[in-house]
Specification:
With about 350 residues, this protein is of the alpha/beta class. It has a six-stranded mixed sheet with strand order 5-4-1-2-3-6, sandwiched between helices. It has a five-stranded mixed sheet with strand order 9-8-7-10-11, sandwiched between helices. Strand 1 and strand 2 form a beta hairpin. The longest helix is centred in the last third of the chain and has 29 residues. It is globular, with a radius of gyration of 20 Å. The two termini are about 30 Å apart. Bound molecules: 5'-O-[(R)-(carboxyoxy)(hydroxy)phosphoryl]adenosine and zinc ion (ZN). The site of 5'-O-[(R)-(carboxyoxy)(hydroxy)phosphoryl]adenosine has 20 residues, from helix 5 and helix 6.
């Protein structure tokens, strides 16, 4: 059995996890996620400097807890995998430099992980304490929807990816957060807004479906956000029901565009499987509508477990495993000189 210690600090979650691998099976020994949501909520969003300082406080206790829970000593870890980018520079630096230090100190290989590829593989992960065969069928289309990214990726093999579309402006999660902020719903807006949406009428307001008629696979959500803002200005004082209806109508517009483009990307590229990953893949309405559309088009849909939709180190350990151990890539021994890459792309 090989053991990978995953480390993730790209935004506001300090996370460490231990992933086991043997004969095509992966085992999640443990996942520790320390969320800073409460710390940032009073500011209405993530404050990068505050996040970095909190990661510094959290990182060693989180790693130690993960090792204790997994009942494994750092000496028995096979390799360390950590997020090198994309993300907030100060936040990334804490996890990446800690990973470098541990790898150097204990003479372990270090795997650099692209956070987006962590999300991309997250649908393969079994629950903590359980194991799974890793058997993705290629090619497939991955919709990565998070607070910082909205991308459609054609995945041809475990190390061949082609970004076929992305957002021109706001990410889907960012749009959820901003619309929630306009309605003073609190932070992070996505989960709160989606709860309100489940109580509302999605046909109460007709919002635009940006770029839905375009032949490409790109997205744009900032105009939709502005349309909601203008509607709210006209309504003056919002009743609870109006907030629910606005939430449901906004969510329906986002979900429709995401689902339509993903299904079209799958059909045009003649793939048989689609996946939806990242923070916004926790959205129940998106899950339901995507499930129905995939079924209607005879496509297989794979979704991550809810515990792996948000940022976590288990997906980072898995991406490191896929990229380096199985993909036979090698990070140069000079990794101590390597810095974070806040703008890393797929
Ligand atoms: O992947 P993630 O944890 O962090 C990034 O890499 O960005 O995604 C966080 C984003 C936030 O914008 C959050 O509001 C959104 O995912 N999100 C949701 C839901 N849960 C989280 N958006 C809509 N509905 C949800 N249920
Ligand atoms: Zn993320």
């Amino acid at each position: 059995m090989i053991y990978i210690l995953g480390i993730e600090t790209s935004c506001d979650e300090t996370s460490a996890a231990v992933l086991g691998y043997e004969k095509n099976r992966i085992f999640v020994l443990t996942q520790v996620v320390n969320s800073q949501i409460n710390l940032h909520s009073k500011f209405g969003g993530v404050v990068p400097e505050v996040a970095a300082r909190q990661h510094i406080k959290n990182i060693l206790p989180v790693i130690n807890l993960a090792l204790r829970q997994a009942k494994i000593k750092i000496e028995d870890i096979t390799a360390v995998a950590a997020t090198r980018g994309p993300g907030l520079a100060g936040a990334l630096m804490v996890g990446w430099e800690t990973a470098k230090t541990l790898a150097w100190l204990h003479k372990k290989p270090l795997y650099e992980v692209n956070h987006l590829l962590g999300h991309l593989w997250s649908f393969l992960l079994p629950p903590v304490g359980e194991s799974n065969l890793i058997n993705p069928s290629f090619p497939f289309i991955s919709l990565i929807v998070s607070g910082g990214h909205t991308e459609l990726v054609l995945v041809k093999s475990s190390n061949s990816y082609q970004v076929i579309g992305k957002t021109y402006d706001d990410a889907a999660g960012e749009a959820f957060d901003k619309v929630a902020k306009i309605m003073n719903l609190g932070y992070p807006g996505g989960p709160i807004l989606s709860k309100r949406a489940s109580l509302g009428n999605s046909k109460a307001f007709l919002f635009p479906r940006p770029m839905s008629k375009d032949k490409n696979f790109n997205f744009s959500f900032s105009g939709l956000k502005t349309a909601v803002l203008y509607k709210i200005r006209k309504l003056a004082e919002l009743s609870d029901q109006q907030i629910n209806d606005l939430s449901a109508s906004f969510q329906a517009a986002v979900v429709e565009v995401l689902v339509d483009k993903t299904i079209r990307a799958a059909l045009i590229n003649q793939v048989q499987m689609v996946t939806v990953v990242g923070g916004v893949s926790a959205n129940q309405n998106l899950r339901q509508v995507m499930t129905a559309a995939a079924k209607e088009n005879s496509l297989l849909l794979r979704l991550p477990l809810m515990s792996y939709t948000g940022d976590n180190a288990t997906m980072i350990a898995l991406a490191g495993l896929m990229d380096y151990y199985l993909g036979k890539k090698n990070l140069a021994k000079k990794f101590l000189q390597f810095a974070i890459k806040p703008n890393l792309n797929i």
